[in-house]
Task: structure prediction
Amino acid sequence: MTLRDHAIRYGFIVLLFGLVAYFSIAADGFVSPQSAVFIFQSVAITGVLALGVTATLVVGGFDLSIGSVATSAMMAAAYVMVVLEQNALVAVVVCLLIGAIVGLINGWLIVYMRVPDLLATLGMMFLLVGLQRIPTEGRSIATGMTMPDGSVANGKFSDAFLALGRHRFDFFIPNLIPVSVVVLLVLAVLIWFFLEYTRFGRMMYAVGSNERAAELAGAPVKAYKIWAYVISGVFASIGGILLAARLGRGDIASGNNLLLDAVAAALIGYAVLGAAKPNAFGTAIGALFVGILLQGLTMMNAPYYTQDFIKGVVLVVALVFTFALSGRGRR
Amino acid sequence: MVGNAVFRVEGLRKSFGHNEVLGGVSLELHAGEVTVLMGANGAGKSTLVKIISGVYERGGGTMVLADQDFAPKTPAEAIRAGVVTVHQNINDGVVADLDVATNLTLDRLSGSGAPTLFNPMRVRREAKAVADRMGLAIDLKARVSDLSLADRQMVAIARALAHKPKVLILDEPTSSLSSAEADRLFALIDRLREQGVAILYISHRMSDIRRLADRIVSMRDGIISGIFDKKPLDYEGAVNAMLGRKIHLDRIVVRDSANAVFKIDGLRIAQGARPISLTLGDGEVVAITGLVGVGKTALAETLFGVRQPLAGTMTLNGRPYAPETAGEAIAAGVFLVAKDRGENGIVGGFNIQENISLPFHKRMSRFAVLKRRLERATARRQIEELGIVCRSEKDEMSELSGGNQQKVMVARWMAQHARLFILDEPFQGVDISARRDIAAKLRASANGRATLLFVTELDEALETADRILVMSEQTIVGEHRNADVDLDRLLAEVAGGPLHSAA
Result:
C-alpha cells in the first residue's frame, strides 16, 4: 500500500485521535468519564437517526424524512401519554408503528410509484412536519395544557418513559451511562452486524451498487429497498422516543437539526477506513467525531453559533476524502 | 465511382489506450445512394460514426467532404459542414418537454446571430417550412413527450435535415420501431435519396437492409471486411464478411445427447412471432446464433424468469417449469450469465469473492449469517478452476482485465450445480485466450446439465457447441449438428431470406 492509500484509509481515524489529544491538552477537564459520557449523550439521538439513514444509503437511496419522523414520534408519545393518558408501553409501541408505517409509505412511493427517493422523502418530511401539529392546533404538549376544545389535558409522562431519558446505569462510577447511550451502542452493533455479516445486509449493498445485477442474481430488489426505508423509519422513531423522554414534553420547536446532523454523520462515515461507501461503523465514528469536536470547542469557549459552520467544514472535508482521494468514489 | 463520392474516408484509425478499435477504415458515400454499414458488436461501427460526427478525434487517416478536407472538432462543426447524424437513442435527438415546432428549430436558438428573445410565431413559421419540406404530418404544437417513438424519430430526423445535409448518418433507426412505423421512415429515406443526400445507414435488420440498400459495407474487427455493390446484392456474402469465418484449429468432438433435460413447447416471446420448440439434452452444449435484435436476449430472459412468454410451456427434468422471477429460476437450477457484464453482472462495490457468492447467499449462510470461510473457499476454488488471473480473491473487479471479469461472471454461476446453464453473449469483450478457456471449461463440465449459449458471432458457436440453432425474427429458423455444417444454408438462415444459389 502506498502512502496515499494509508492516508485515505486511516486519515480520518488519525484526525480523530489528533483531535482528542489536542483537546486533552488544551481544554481542562476534557479527559474524564463524565465528559466522555456527555459526548456520547450529545450524539445519541442523531447517531440513532444516522444509523437508520445508513440503511437507505446502502441500497442507493436516501431518507430526508428521518428528522420529521423523529419529531412526529416525539409528539405522538406526548399525545398518547398526556392527552390519551396511556402508559409508557403504549407510547413506545405507537412511536415504533409510526416509524414503520412512514418507512413503508416511503418505500412504496419510491419503489412502486417511482418517485425519486429525495423527492419522495422530502414530500414525506413536509407532510409529517404539518401533520404533527394538527392534533393540538400547533401547540406544544405538556401536562395541564388546554386542548382546542377547551378541556385540560391531565395525563402526564409516565415515570417509566421518562426513565428512558433520565436513568443512568452504573459503570465503575455510579449513575454514569444514560439509557440513550446504551440504546445507541446496542443499535450500532446490531445494524453493523446486520449489514456486514448477514446475507440480507450483503444483498442490500449489492442492490445499492448494481440493482440489475442483484435482480439477476435472484434478489427481490423491491422488497430490499422497502425494508431499508422501514429500518430508517423505525430507527428515526426510536430517536424520537429518546428525544421525548429527554425533554419530558412534546415540544414542536425541538429537533430541527436532527436531519442535517444525522445525514452529516452518515456521510462522514464514508471516509472512515477508506470505505467510500455507507457503513454502520463509519456512521458511528462520524457521529462521535462531530460530538468530540463540538464538545472540545465548547469547553474552549467557542460560541454556540459557530457549531453548524464547523460541522459543515468537517462534512465537506470528509466528502473530499471520499470522492476525490479514493478511486472508488469516482465510479 | 471514385469521382462522384460526396464523402470519402481513408485509412481512418482510432485507438483507446492499447486497444485499437479502427485499424485503417476506408469508406465512400455517394450522393443519392443508401450505403448500409453492417458489423457485429465491437466491430467499430459506432466509433466510426462518432469520429465522422465530430464526437471523437481520429487517430489517423483523412476525411474528405465534397473535395474539401473535413476535420470536425465538435458535433456542431460537423453539422455546419453538412454531415448530420441521427443517433440510435431517439431521445438524444429531441427535447421531450418542448413542442415539435421548438424542437425542429432548436439549433437556431443558440449560436451567434440567434435573436435574444424567443418568438413563438417565428419559430412556428420556420418549423412549418421544415416540416413541409420533409412531408412531415405531425401537429407542430404537440409536446414531443406525447408522441409515439416513430413520430419522435421523424422529428429528430427532420431536425437534422433542417441543416440541409450532404451526408446523413442513421444509426440503427428502426431498432425501436414497429414495422408500420419503419415503413414511414423508409418512405422518408427514399425521398431523401431522390433529393441527392448521401446516406449511411447502420443496421442489423436484414429486412431493412433488403428494403433500402444500394450498397453494403461490412465491418469486422475495426476494418472493412467486404464491400458489396453489384446488383443483385449478395446479402449472405455481406453477413459472412461481417461475422467472419476463420479456420478453427481445434475442432470439437461433437456429442449427441439422448437424455432430455429441458424442453420448450410452442413458446412465443414476441407479438406476431412464430412459436419456438426445442429440446436440450444432458451434457449437450447448444448455441443459438442470429443477428443482434432477433430476440436472443428476450429468449434467454424468458427462460430465466425475468420476462414472461406470451404462450407456450417449458419442462425441466420432466416437471413443468414456469418461473416468474429470477429467484425462482435459480431455485429450480436454471442459471443465466447475462450479457453485458458491466450492466447486468458485476457489482462494482464488491470484490471477486463477493461477486462470486452473490446468487448463492442463502446456500452459504446459517441463520442468515454468511459463512465467510465457505465463501472464501468457494471463491478460491472457482478462481483456480477457471484460471482467473488475480492476486487474491479480495481483488477489486475494476483491477481485472475484461476476460478475467467475464471469467468471474462464469465462475459465479458455476459455483453451484445447474440443471440448465444459459450464457448470453459470454464472449463479448473477451480476448481470444480467455474465450478459449471459458469455452473449454464449459465443455469439460457439461455433463449433468444442459448448456445453452446465445452468440452473435458464428465462430464462437462453431468453436463451442454440439448443436447450432439459428434465430431470426424472434424464432428459431434452423438447426445444425456441429459437424460438417452447411455454412451456406446457415448463413442464409441468419440473413433471414430464402437460400439463393451463389453465382
